[in-house]
Design brief:
single chain, about 170 residues, 4-stranded antiparallel beta sheet, 5 helices, elongated
Amino acid sequence: MADSEYGEEVQGKKTGMIVTVAIVLVLSLVAGAGGWVLGGVLAPQVATEDDSADAAGHEGDAGESGQAAENKPRDNVFQLEPITTNLSYPSENWIRIEVSLVFSGSPDAELADQIHQDILSYLRTVSLQQIEGPRGFQYLRDDLRERVKLRSEGRVNDLLFRTFVIE
């Protein structure tokens, strides 16, 4: 009699385990499908080269000349020389960054040199505590972008960080 009670307990535990695994699998599938659908809705639609070639072909069919596309200003990336300097506090810490400027129109080397010097001067006033952690890095990046846009009077659209090292 004890054996049959024990067998029923084991059978009940196995059934409970199977039901739990089935529920977890079903919920995982529902969550995965929901994430896939939501990702498709929220993700930006990226045009491939084939799509842009098709769009250019259709513009030509509409009777437009290619001059409108040629006259449209294009962004040009200009890489600045690496900037290495010590921080204001603690002065034994060094920072090295490599950045690129995204110009609207053709890049201006003289303006890029002025921006390089401005970034160098700014970094010498920054302390380690100001740029610690992700929030500090975000503040630094925002400050540098603002300074670049002010210095360039709108000729530079963005500042891209290539490397960022603190020793």
